[in-house]
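## Example pair
The file below holds two records. Each record gives the amino-acid sequence first, followed by its structure token line.
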Amino acid sequence: MRIYWAWAISLNLIFASAISASAEPLSESFKLKLEATITGDISPKSVRSSNTGFVSAHNMMYSHSVTIYDARNLELVKSISDQVNLKDLGIKGYSGLHRGAPVEGAFSPDGKHLYVTNYAMYGKGFNREGTDAFDLSTNKVVKSVKTGSAARSLDISADGSALYVVNYTSNTLAKVRVSDFKVLQKINVCSRPIGVTYEKLQQRVWVACYGGSIKVFSDSQSQ
């Protein structure tokens, strides 16, 4: 039996930025120029900006970590291990330490929390393949929830109250309440869902299906 999770990372970081009130040139007028190449004990599958001064990299099972960088000076702020004790997080039926494979991330609207899906779970009670959801507070895991098998992508609602996770090999979309990491819904969506985004103007969740279709779900009071 394959078991998968989603994680959330709460960053104990403070960043103040000043935004100029004057009109800025459009990005289309610039040319890309390489500033730096970041290396180290990393194997990033994806990166995500908090839009508050930090960037996260999700390093799969090859490095078993999430690394956080200062967007101003490109320095490493923290390397967060994906190792957790599920029993300590209130997850029954497991003992000892487990490791994941951080694959994608999504920041909360205020940039203070990072939610991370994990493509695999390693440890007693798991097969090699798995998915995890971590909630790390003060740079460590504090919450965990089962979402489905091989969670690939996730997004967060505009108000920061719900996560949407697609599970690649269980063919499902899971909606998770952020406050207590409870799965509110799990929907059989399509074969091999691989991408998801929340569109805030119409309050819809779009799911990319690897087989050649897009599923669109309403998630509002008026539905």
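Second record, same layout:
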Amino acid sequence: MSAPRHSYVAVIDDDESAGRALGRLLRAEGFQPVCYLSAEAFLADTKRPVFAQSSSGNWNGLPDRFGIDAGYFGLTAENVLNYKGGNVDFEKDLGLDKGVSTFWVDGTWRVGRRHQLKLSYTRFSRERADFTLERDFVWGGDTYNAGLSATTKSGSDILGGYYRFAVYRNDRFEIGPAVGIGYLWLSAEVRATGTIGDASRSLDHSKNTGSLTGALGGYTNGWITKRLVARADFLYIKVSPGDRKASNTDWRLGADYYFFPNAGLGVQYKYNKYTQDGNTDQLGGEVVYLGFQVFLALLF
């Protein structure tokens, strides 16, 4: 339940103790109850305040039980990975375009005045064919020599769930901690063919990996006008899966404007960085995605 400050609610019950108990519950949720023992007493009260009407329950008239943000757009990628060898810069060494196609959806469920649950999914994918290697490097235990023609695929999926608690909340502003858990899938494939000296070479090594992630941080939302809200989130965690070390940093800063009660547009700057140690058999390195996003914002 969510209520604007000083929203008055009439409680009519001929049982005085029951009316007081209901009034305490309403007051705990931010309402201002006024108790009456009968409908006649309510109608006879000429000094009664203006009572809250059935509506979205928010000062700006917008619903806030459920929210969905979604879009398909491009971000900037910076990926340095290793697999049975040294670090390979996928943009510089393999010619992948820094622009990456991204699908992103973020859902919010306000389960109480101070409590929210969020579920977020992001997908990234890139591919580059016929890039001539300019330096030697080791990938998958084999040496990829300069002069070979390489085809590269890279992708990742990030799924996360979060709980938010508003330490402070009023009509237009809230702030509090957030804690979450998620999973990251990372894939990379490098194929190369060509002739080095008198020898023909054909190499093809791919690797997929998945890792449980988590996050601890905070968030804040502030309504600038009845239709414009500014938002900020920050999440970070460092974990040690097995004999490896990993960290995840995720933050965003943006704003939504609602042209209609249930629909609007949002813009944000998003930064996500995931690092994980590699070893002889696993895919590791650093994956960074950052940039501006424009997306559809829905409220229910």
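Notes on the second record: The chain has a mean pLDDT of 88. The chain is about 5% helix and 65% strand.
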